[in-house]
Amino acid sequence: MRRYAVSYALAALLGAASAQPVGHVPSSKVLDLLGTAQRRILVYVPYLTDLSFADALRIAKNDPSRPKLQVILITVPFFAAKSDALSNGLALAGVPVVEAQVSSTTAYVLVDDRLFSSKTLGRVANANDVQLMSLSDTNTFLGWFKNAAKAGTIITAYQAFTRIGGNK
Q1: pTM to 2 decimals?
Q2: Where in the sequence is the signal peptide annotated (predicted)?
Q3: Contacts for 35 with CB less than 8 Å, ≥ 6 apart
Q4: Which CATH number goes with the domain that contains 78?
Q5: For position 19, what pLDDT does the model report?
Q6: Is 89 within a domain?
Q7: In-domain check, residue 96
Q8: In 7, 71, 81, 107, which residue has its Cα 20 to 30 A from 98's Cα atom?
């Protein structure tokens, strides 16, 4: 049943006919891959509140041994504006954070060429519903991500600073 729910969520998000999870993976595997990614980390998380996940993104972006690594986060404006959203801290740490109006509550994380989906990844530590998605889903996600990033707005350091209460 969960497999079909994940398939439906990706299909709804990306406009694809169907999405096909390949299998379950522990969230620790995704965190490990963030630590070794060489080309890109593209993330859509509506509401980023998991400190270990946010920290892994920050470390990856600022790792001097991976200067060509592309790290981008897309999030939802309503949640990003909350003072406890960790996306604001990432914007201050140099991670490009894009706000876009996206209706999906499922998180998608692309690490190099592997796409993962989860209802809880980025929101809770040790997410237990992470799915590895198929290559065709990965290609569909790349197109969606590119369009969403273009349509969205990048959070400035000043916006992020004021959201976390730095202007009081």
Answers
A1: 0.85
A2: 1-19
A3: 56, 59, 60
A4: 3.30.870.10
A5: 63
A6: yes
A7: yes
A8: 7
The count of structural domains within the chain is 1
Q: How many CA atoms lie within 13 A of 32 on its CB side?
A: 5
- Res 13: pLDDT: 54
Q: Give yes or no for residue 163 having a pLDDT over 90.
A: no
* CA distances to 9, 26, 143, 168 from 127, in Å: 17, 7, 26, 35
Q: How many Cβ atoms sit within 10 Å of the Cβ of residue 100?
A: 18
Instruction: Calculate the CA 134 to chain-centre distance.
Output: 17
Q: What angle do CA 125, 128, 134 make, to 5 degrees?
A: 115
In a domain, 168, yes or no: no
Structure tokens at 20: 């096909």
Report pLDDT digits (tens) over 76-131.
Answer: 887 777 777 899 999 999 999 999 988 888 999 999 999 999 999 999 989 999 99
- Reduced to 3 states (helix: H, G, I; strand: E, B; else coil), residue 4 is helix
CB 43 within 8 A of CB 72: yes
Within a domain: 118:
yes
Domain that holds residue 110: 2-163
Q: For residue 29, what are its two tokens?
A: 């595997």
> Sign of torsion, CA 51 55 58 60?
negative
Give the integer Cα–Cα distance in Å for 158 and 92: 8
